[in-house]
Amino acid sequence: MIYVISPLGEGKKRWTWFLQVNLYTLGVCLASTFTGLIVGSLGLTLKLIQLDLPFWIVGILALAYGLKEFDFIRLPMPQRRWQVPISWINQRPFFGSLAYGLTIGAGFLTFIPYAGFYVWTALALVIGDPKLGALLGFVYGLGRAFSVYLIGFLTTQSDQKSVFEMSAFIFSKAQLWHRLSGFLLLVTAIYILTSA
To answer: Are 1 and 104 in contact (CB under 8 A)?
Structure first.
């Protein structure tokens, strides 16, 4: 997504970039909120919150995926691995930005880069509250959109760095981002396992 909605430093008019990024963010947040709503509703139907065991399972899942993000263990990350076509943006920039967001925000339609997706959806399922599930999904969506804003901000603050150089720099720190994700998952695991 970062390469597709090029930030201001690449000659794009400010309003065009702003509109595309906000349409992408709207799509991501709408789709992830809807995913959370559906998963929370499913959990409400299954009434998993009445059992203590599911919270322990979410805690163990957070612990396991936290350790995975630190490369201490190997775990599968089931996902479709489908890439959104760049033609969506090239042919219809504004609609394409929204469509990108809707596809990526749903979480299960494309590549899932970080293990937190599995934990927040499991938590939404176990809690069984559609509103809380929607809130968890919304926060996830904001996290998915953050990098596009970050690249746009950093490339407008420095004329020496191109979008590709800045993107390459951020992507080169992928291990750091996975460690941060792992840390947050471990904190989540400790909280759930000590309070469940």
So the answer is: yes
User: Alpha-carbon distance 76 to 68, whole Å?
Assistant: 9
Q: What are phi and psi of 3, to 5 degrees?
A: -75, -25
CA distances from 181 to 31, 62, 138, 147, 191 (A): 21, 10, 17, 14, 15
57-115: per-residue pLDDT in tens? 999 999 999 999 999 999 998 888 777 777 777 788 888 889 889 988 888 888 888 89
Which residue, among 107, 105, 85, 78, has the nearest Cα to 24 in the 3D structure? Answer: 105
The answer to whether residues 24 and 144 touch, using CB atoms and an 8 Å cutoff, is no
Q: Which tokens hold the place of 94?
A: 């504004």
| Domain encompassing residue 63 | 12-195
Amino acid at 111: F
Is residue 6 a part of any domain in this protein?
no
Nearest one of 77, 109, 111, 160 to 1, comparing CA atoms: 111
φ, ψ (nearest 5 deg) of residue 115: -75, -15
- Rounded CA-CA distance 10/61 in Å is 41
Does some domain include residue 1? no
